[in-house]
Write a structure and sequence with these properties.
alpha+beta, seven-stranded mixed barrel, six-stranded antiparallel β-sheet, 21 strands, 26% strand
Length: 326
């Protein structure tokens, strides 16, 4: 069991999302950064789908009520356990009374905290994710606050210290975060100048960004055609362009439909990069064909499987070593 001692607003319990309810007007919710979420779970031997804490703002502080394994992954935030510095991607054991602290985020925007078996909250409509707009799921359908106590769904137990590397948010030597984009239904409605600006110049993430969508600031995007569109289905990754001409990337808490024209869609393999972008960060879009998207998705799936096996091997090696020594 763990208790929230101090935590800014907007931290929630999330898993990989509540899917299959778009036709009922219910979005998926779920983690913004599925990569860090998965790795935090794997470090504990959890399933991909087990729920974690998603913490988008720091500083934060948790106290362990009993001895238990835990794992963290995501943004670099000077995490410490009773003052001992931890890697940004780490699993180990905390003793009753120890305090886990997250400092200022230096690289990235979200950190994920996992407990054995996943966070123990009720499953609703096939998911344990928090639907903030609708007010259900997760922990009482709300953000976490000081005094909340939660626990894992498996026995606490003790765990080895394991750490793995996360892929870099930016390419070497680059200031911008690169996001690969495929065309959408209205891409052809945008002017050549708009497309050149969209792909040729950087956009800045504005403070008006949240789990529903990231609002960007950069070159104005104009269309050849005029007038509004009928509302149509949208999903995380879609890049809409309202009348202001400034793009919005729809994300985990996106609505199920909207009428703004779509200039493109960020591929699933890059959504974790969006989630780790902070206000003020620069984003550069990179065009990708459908064939290129399939190659990128296959490469990302291969990376996930390789990482999962590396973590599993590390856990098995420690367990074998522990039996021999102790």
């Amino acid at each position: 069991m763990i208790e929230v001692v101090a935590l800014p607003a907007l931290a929630t319990v999330q898993d990989l999302g509540r899917h299959g309810h778009w036709t009922e007007g219910l979005g998926s919710a779920g983690v913004m950064d599925p990569l860090s979420h998965r790795i935090a779970n794997w470090l504990l031997g959890n399933a991909d789908t087990d729920a974690t804490f998603e913490i988008p703002l720091t500083p934060g502080r948790f106290e362990f009520i009993e001895d238990t394994g835990f794992a963290i992954a995501g943004a670099a935030c000077d995490a410490r356990l009773d003052g001992l510095a931890l890697p940004r991607c780490f699993a180990g054991t905390a003793l009753a009374g120890q305090v886990l602290e997250f400092g200022a985020m230096r690289d990235g925007a979200r950190v994920y905290l996992a407990l054995p078996g996943g966070i123990d909250v009720p499953e609703m409509l096939g998911s344990r994710s928090t639907q903030l707009r609708e007010g259900f799921g997760g922990f009482e359908g709300r953000v976490l606050k000081p005094g909340d106590r939660l626990q894992g769904r498996s026995a606490p137990g003790r765990l080895s210290r394991i750490s793995v590397n996360l892929p870099p948010l930016r390419q070497d030597g680059e200031a911008e975060i690169r996001l690969r984009v495929i065309p959408s239904a209205e891409t052809g409605q945008f002017t050549e100048t708009a497309l050149e600006g969209f792909y040729g110049k950087a956009y800045k993430v504005t403070p008006q960004s949240n789990r529903q969508g990231y609002r960007l600031e950069g070159p104005i995007l104009e269309r050849w055609t005029e007038g509004e569109l009928r509302s149509h289905g949208i999903a995380p990754g879609i890049i809409q362009v309202p009348a202001s001409g400034q793009p919005i990337i729809q994300l985990a808490d996106a609505a199920t439909m909207g009428g703004y024209p779509k200039i493109g869609c960020v591929i699933d393999a890059d959504l974790w990069r969006v989630a780790q972008a902070r206000p003020g960060d620069l984003i550069r879009f990179e065009p990708l064909t459908l064939a290129g998207m399939r190659e990128a998705e296959e490469a990302f799936a291969a990376y996930l499987e390789e990482t999962r096996q590396q973590v599993a091997s590390g856990r098995r090696l420690f367990q074998s070593w522990s039996r021999d020594v102790f």
